[in-house]
Amino acid sequence: MKIYLAARSKRRAELEDLARSIEQLGHTVTSRWLAGYSQENDDNARFDAQYDLNDIVVADALVLFTEDPEGTGSLRGGRHVEFGCALHAGKTLFIVGPRENIFHELPEVVRFSDAEELFNFLASPAVMEELS
Fold first, then answer.
1. Residue 29: which residues within 8 A CB-CB, separation 6 or more?
2. What tens digit of pLDDT does each residue of 41-79 get?
3. How many other β-carbons are positioned within 10 Å of the β-carbon of residue 42?
4. How far apart are CA 97 and CA 121, in angstroms?
5. What's this model's pTM, rounded to 2 decimal places?
6. Is 47 left (phi over 0), alpha (psi -120 to 50) or beta?
């Protein structure tokens, strides 16, 4: 399965490690943002946003790593746009962490409490067979 990982950019190192583990299971992680961007100016930011959208389009599923809305202070919202694009495109949707908004309550969204639970799900032979 091709998977796009969406999260706050501050979690990039954590997701890079997880992406390697997911790929060892035979999945492909399409999130080029994990290699890093430089949003030094508006032109670069537009280019990076287009990369993200393209990476979502080629993915079969999107995994959104959410944050505790009570303890994070000011949050940027790119990951929520990515989730919305994947929802609109009919992708398989997973979230890891707490539900942050009403769209995370939709019946097609599968929620995991942490990355280990997601990883175990993705490693399941039944899941691998069903998704192949």
1. 2, 3, 4, 5, 19, 22, 23
2. 667 778 888 989 999 999 999 999 998 776 655 456 789
3. 8
4. 15
5. 0.85
6. alpha
Question: What distances in angstroms separate CA 111 from CA 20, 26, 34, 37, one per listed residue?
Answer: 21, 22, 22, 28
User: What are the structural domains, with CATH classification, of the chain?
Assistant: 2-131 (3.40.50.450)
In this structure, are residues 17 and 84 in contact, taking their beta carbons and an 8 Å threshold? no
pLDDT in tens, 2-26: 999 999 888 999 999 999 999 999 9
Q: Residue 121 and residue 56: Cα distance in Å, rounded?
A: 21
Instruction: Please tell me the predicted confidence (pLDDT) of residue 24.
Output: 96
Q: Tokens for 21? A: 């583990």
